């Protein structure tokens, strides 16, 4: 069976969204509170910058929030019973100010507790502007990516090859 390449996050991810344009059911992190009452309107714990919430309505006011995307699980080496466990991840970022996390799971039908962090790229102090690749070794059945603490920039793509 040939080795596979897949996208860990959809192309061009990580947007700042204005209140009034939230997608119900989507996870966000407050960037600016503005006049939006996230605690009352969205059920967030508070109105503080950095608080994560799941949108319950499209929102009102002048607040903004960043999308907290969790990529779909992608089949890893363990799914195909490959024995070398080598996974290569490449990320293409443009002035990305946030945290990019790659996770793996060893179970065939993972729940949230089954995911472990394999690599973290932190651009919160200095935005990441360079493309990069790195290897992760392990017979992971599934691999996924998460972007969190997003403040600015773009994730053009994150690719997995194994």
Structural summary, described in words:
The chain is mainly beta and 162 residues long. 2% of the residues lie in helices and 47% in strands. The strands form two sheets. Strands 1, 6, 7, 8, 9 and 10 form a six-stranded antiparallel β-sheet that branches. The longest helix is centred in the N-terminal third of the chain and has 4 residues, at 38-41. The protein starts with a strand and ends with a strand.
Write the topology of this structure.
Elements: E1 5-9, E2 16-18, E3 27-32, H1 38-41, E4 52-54, E5 64-67, E6 74-75, E7 86-105, E8 116-122, E9 132-137, E10 142-161
Antiparallel strand pairs: 1-10, 2-5, 3-4, 3-5, 6-10, 7-8, 7-9, 7-10
Radius of gyration: 17 Å
Q: How confident is the prediction overall: mean pLDDT? A: 87
Q: Predict the CATH topology of the largest domain.
A: Jelly Rolls
Task: Count every beta strand, where a strand is a DSSP E run of 2 or more residues.
Answer: 10
Which stretches are low in confidence, meaning pLDDT under 50 for 5 or more residues running?
A: none
What class do helices, strands and sheet pairing give?
mainly beta
- Succession of helices and strands: EEEHEEEEEEE
* Count of separate DSSP helical elements: 1
The domain count comes to 2
Q: Tell me the CATH architecture of the largest domain.
A: Sandwich
Specify the helix fraction band: under 10%
Strand portion:
over 45%
Q: How would you sum up the major sheet? A: 6 strands, antiparallel
Which CATH class of the largest domain is shown? Mainly Beta
Query: What is the overall silhouette?
Result: elongated
- What is the rounded distance between the termini? 12 Å
């Amino acid at each position: 069976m040939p080795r596979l390449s897949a996208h860990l996050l959809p192309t061009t991810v990580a947007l700042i969204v204005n209140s009034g344009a939230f997608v119900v059911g989507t996870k966000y992190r407050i960037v600016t509170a503005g006049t939006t009452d996230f605690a009352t309107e969205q059920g967030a714990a508070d109105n503080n910058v950095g608080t994560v919430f799941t949108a319950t309505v499209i929102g009102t006011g002048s607040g903004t929030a960043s999308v907290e995307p969790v990529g779909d699980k992608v089949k890893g080496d363990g799914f195909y019973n490959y024995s070398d466990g080598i996974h290569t991840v490449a990320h293409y970022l443009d002035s990305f100010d946030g945290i990019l996390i790659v996770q793996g799971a060893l179970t065939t039908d993972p729940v949230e507790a089954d995911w472990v962090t394999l690599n973290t790229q932190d651009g919160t102090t200095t935005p990441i502007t360079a493309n990069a690749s790195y290897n992760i070794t392990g017979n992971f059945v599934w691999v996924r990516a998460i972007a969190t603490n997003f403040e600015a920039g773009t994730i053009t793509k994150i690719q997995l090859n194994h």
